Amino acid sequence: MKSTPILTLLAVLLASSASAQTPAAPATPVAPGAEVTAAPQVTLTPAQTEHILKELEKAEAQIGQGRNAVLGAALAKFRTAAANESDALALYLDCYKLENFERKDLKQTDFMEWRERNEARLKDEDFKTALLLQLEYLVMTIQAQGIDDPKKMGPLVTGLQAFLAKAITAVQATVKHTASGAVEAKDAGKGGGRPGGGQGRGGQGGGGGQLEGILRQPVKGTEFTKAYQLEDYLDRKDWEYSPLNVGGIYNSVILPYYALEKPEELAAQWDARINAEMALRKAGMSQTEFDLYFKEEGPRLQWEKDNDLLSHNVAAVNAMADMLKIIQSNPSHPDASGWLSEFKEILKRVAPAGSVETPIGK
Fold this sequence. Notes:
Layout: H1 5-19, H2 46-81, H3 85-100, H4 108-117, H5 119-123, H6 125-145, H7 154-173, E1 175-177, E2 183-185, H8 209-215, H9 223-227, H10 246-261, H11 266-283, H12 287-311, H13 316-329, H14 336-350
């Protein structure tokens, strides 16, 4: 392997320094099972340290440029393909062929046979809509990787809000409810998931068929991402990678942004999050299933909202009043005892000193 300049420099520096070092003291015995941490065997001079730091700074700049080049090239391609369904499908086929056939040294005829087997799925409108939405979310995901200041997340927050409205509407269009309240998927006979792969991830209230299944997949695992080898570049922690994880998108990006930049609108954004979550769940559940879900999850989300408002000191007194009302209105809820204990602790922190000595309800 060819040595890099910085590795060569280190080798020379360390070799020259080693001859000037005093003999190392005998190693201290390590107890069995103890963690061993290697101690530095050389001491660099100030000049050597300064030189290495400058070289590391250059290397860091080169790494950043390389990362930006990879993400930038993919971003440009994905933006273009997200313009319409035909371009999105063409890019999907190119990516699928590259990842699943060319890189495995399979023949062109193998790909053509796969395409013929999946012709009906590839022509399905729900599938093509899902690809467009997947690309739209992937574009925002790539853009988010380069934003280091939370205050600059505003345009992406706006984009996420618009995306969720569009995606939920698309899921709603794939299902219908009968007069009795039962839910039926428009593509029930086709199965979920993506062509050539397994079933899409259902589970989270979904009768939305393949469109919902595709949008519940993390964008890190899409054919687009795999073909462009982006998995390891999409590493932002405060981001949700599954396009239909409403709670994750709000908790990771939207709500923190409003808490920081527009706290006066935080309560409204919580309401928007709850409404979006309920709309998505209702689309894929029978009326009876949704009623049961709402009875349990509705109070839970309201409690989470009020707790967040309280922690950010936004309409705190009203938030506490709502929390008390939730406890009073839902005595048989699975979380009721936990809410009660939590509320007692909150009251102890905010009440005048000495006024809460006897536990509430005792």
